[in-house]
Structures are given as structure tokens and as C-alpha cells.
Give the backbone structure.
Amino acid sequence: MEGPILLHEKDEEFEILEAVIWFFCLSLHTDIDVANDDGFYSCKDPKYISVNDFSFSRLHIPPTTTYKRKQVFNQVFDHQLPGLNTLGISMLLFDFAVGEFVPPHVHFKGTEIFVVLRGSILVNLNTSGPFNHQFTQVIRKGDVFVIPKGLYHSQKNVGKTDAIVIAAFNCQNPDVFHFRH
């Protein structure tokens, strides 16, 4: 999965003035494609790569949701944007109605950082032992909050309007483990 290394020569001794390393692996995401142990997928043949592998223009279209609450999640993970494969980044837009909440959950694969675009969100963040601290804060439009990898957290819309949040992760496809009593 290595890409070509482009070198510029200065003289006969091949002194390297500049090295540009090209490496990316756009995921195939076929029905039979399975991620390896690192969470990466098979690489697409470079001759079939197009500009569409590097762009995603559907954040403005609300997807259908499996939640029975009034929440809409729109993911931009490696399945939606093949260019994210192996890069260790992803994002998510979520929109939820007044009073709705994202139940307690944890991401073991990556840290989450999010910005509120509209509304007011109550964030609940729980650290693990031996201290077991609980932190809560209301964040509003323009505020940013970070949730370190592996910490349980939840969010609730405590404002008077629908809330919209964009979250980014330092992993290509954040896992979600929901807390059950």
C-alpha cells in the first residue's frame, strides 16, 4: 500500500532537495469488504480514484434516523467519504429537538471535539476511577467542548430551539458504546 516517492535531484550525487511522499488508501467499502484489525479497509485501485472520493456534500440533507426520538445524525465517516480511510479523522452533524438527548455513551477509538452551531447543550462528562468525577456544563452557539477518548458522556438540548452540533473525531470511524443500567 505504499505510494510513489518523488525525488528531485540536485546533482550527480543525487542530493535530495525535496521529498514528497504520496500515500493514501481510499476505501473500497464493498459488501464483502471487512476492516482489518486497525479498522482500515482495502485500498481502491488508484486508477479508479475520482474527486468524489474526497468530497461529501450531504450534511445539509437530513438523513432518516433509527432513533425514535427527534434526533438526526449525519455521519461523515470513512463509509461516506472514502478519502478518510487511514487518515484518522471523521465528523458528524447532529440536530436534536428541544428536550431531546444523546444518552450516555463512550468512544473508545477516539477523542471527540464539537462546536454548537445553534441552541444550548448540557454536556455531562464522567471520568473513571479512582476519582469518578462528573462534570456538567451548558455550552451555547460558538462554544467548543472536548471529550477525551474513553470517557462516558451525554448531551441534552436545554435550549428553546432545535440544537445543531458538529463533532469531529481523531479516528476514521468512532465506535459508540452505550451505557446500560
Observations:
- Residues 14 and 75 are 46 Å apart (CA to CA).
